[in-house]
Amino acid sequence: MKYFGGCDVGSTYTKAVILDENGKMCADTTIRSKINAEQSAIAAMQEVCDKVGLKDSKELAYLIGTGYGRNKVPFADENISEISCHAMGVHVTNPEVRAIIDIGGQDVKGISIDTDGTVKSFAMNDKCSAGTGRFFEAMARSFEMSLPEFSNLSLTAKNVIPITAQCTVFAESEVITLVGEGKPTDEIAAGIEMAVAKRCFVMAKKAG
């Protein structure tokens, strides 16, 4: 049996996966990215290799590196941008999809794809962390919650309290003020998510 691997070294999390020769996913993992991108890739790949009984990633038939640190994936046979990987991955799993929004740790991408999974166009916000994964982490800290706890907070909201600040620092300050005023935390969280959704909509429109 031949195995094939993929490693996505992101700025915040590193993901790894192994497929068999029939395209079936045999193992996957997500770990927090280390300061050293290469060490992140090694740790993630070793974890999935252990799950399928391989000594290390050298035993894979083919390995692709992607993401922010794709050039740091040891033993990778090929490095491909995460934009192209998103496009082909979505095409394989759901060929009817034509638009992708990727909220990463440090940027947000809007991607338009063709009928064969190729990238038609894309837009990217990489100059400001507002609306990114790190933005959500900052907001969770404002509520003294973990990110998983924060992600469920808005589900009980009956109203949405708008967040007007565009910058992460100012938005965090605005949230702290609203919490101090006794505003419902679930409605504040809903406002945060609405602000991010609007930014993503703009990004998707730019991508066409």
From TrEMBL:
Record flagged with keyword Transmembrane helix: no
InterPro entries for the chain: ATPase_BadF, ATPase_NBD, CoA_E_activase_dom, Dehydratase_Activator_Redct
A Gene Ontology molecular function term of the record: iron-sulfur cluster binding
Keyword Metal-binding: yes
Cofactor needs: [4Fe-4S] cluster
Keywords, alphabetical: Iron, Iron-sulfur, Metal-binding
Domain ATPase BadF/BadG/BcrA/BcrD type: 6-207
PANTHER family per record: BIFUNCTIONAL PROTEIN [INCLUDES 2-HYDROXYACYL-COA DEHYDRATASE (N-TER) AND ITS ACTIVATOR DOMAIN (C_TERM), BIFUNCTIONAL PROTEIN [INCLUDES 2-HYDROXYACYL-COA DEHYDRATASE (N-TER) AND ITS ACTIVATOR DOMAIN (C_TERM)-RELATED
Name assigned to this protein: CoA-substrate-specific enzyme activase
High-level lineage: unclassified sequences, metagenomes, organismal metagenomes
